[in-house]
Amino acid sequence: MRRKIVAGNWKMNNDLSGTEALLNDLIALVPNTEATVMVAPTFVNLFQAFNVLKGHNIEVIAQNMHQEPNGAFTGEISAQMLKSVGVNTVILGHSERRAYFGETDELLAKKVAAALSNELQVVFCFGEELEDRKSGRHFSVVEEQLKNALFHLQTSDWEHIILAYEPVWAIGTGETASPEQAQEMHAFIRKTISEKFGDQVGTTVSILYGGSVKPTNAAEIFAKQDVDGGLIGGASLKAEDFVAIINAI
Ligand code: PGA
């Protein structure tokens, strides 16, 4: 179902006490909102994050997972392990996973399938690099990413998929896509999904924008018709900024 979502991706930030402190600030400051608010602390703090947030309307989600259910994969974490501590949603395909950890569309197709078969909802990230945009290939790159990682899905799987368009050149750089650039790409994504899976899926999938969203630019990006919210990195680490972004929706 299409809904408004603001998700904070904390990446490799905040130790245990930092996690507790930020969550307590969010408990105090996050307004009553119809939007879904999510935060993704690091794996080791997920369990405690659920404890701190008990009874509050902030969803704890994971930043990644392995595609296999268990086995000799040192350092990895499975869908079932996430489920066992209470996680219902996982981010997959973040550009940092793709760039620094070699995650390919083909691998991500497997991760998405594994997440769905474990009844995890997926926030699927994708987006073009700067050279792609400069050379005018941004639409075809995005289409390819969607095709390779998500076109194997069944129509019914889409109830559990949230898309996050994150142009790589805008992540952590301070450079944001203009609201028009975001809208243009989100409309293209919706059309691509509609053509493959039908209008029902295309019009109901939530598509978030990510890449240097801040309190100062959130409202104009979120105002665009095909933008359903944001995946927020740096600005989700300060409660006041994250809350200002939630208020912008
Ligand atoms: P940023 O990160 O907001 O710091 O650009 C966004 C993301 O990586 O999801």
Word description of this protein:
The chain is an alpha/beta fold and about 250 residues long. The chain is built from 11 helices and 8 strands. 2-phosphoglycolic acid binds near residues 172, 210 and 233.
Q: Summarize the amount of helix as a percent range.
A: 40-55%
Measured distance between first and last alpha carbons: 17 Å
Q: Which strands sit side by side, in order, in the main sheet?
A: 3-2-1-8-7-6-5-4
Number of helices: 11
Which ligands occur here?
Answer: 2-phosphoglycolic acid
Q: Tell me the fraction of residues in β-strands, as a range.
A: 5-15%
**Which outline best applies?**
globular
H/E series, N to C?
A: EHEHEHEHHEHHEHHEHEH
Structural class: alpha/beta
Poorly predicted ranges: none
Tell me, rounded to a whole number, the average pLDDT. Answer: 97
- Please summarize the sheet with the most strands: 8 strands, parallel
Radius of gyration: 17 Å
Oligomeric state: single chain
Number of strands: 8
SSE blueprint:
Blueprint: E1 5-9, H1 16-29, E2 36-40, H2 46-53, E3 58-60, H3 79-84, E4 89-92, H4 95-100, H5 105-117, E5 121-126, H6 130-134, H7 138-150, E6 161-165, H8 179-197, H9 199-204, E7 206-210, H10 218-222, E8 229-232, H11 239-248
2-phosphoglycolic acid is lined by residues 9, 166, 171-172, 210-213, 231-235.
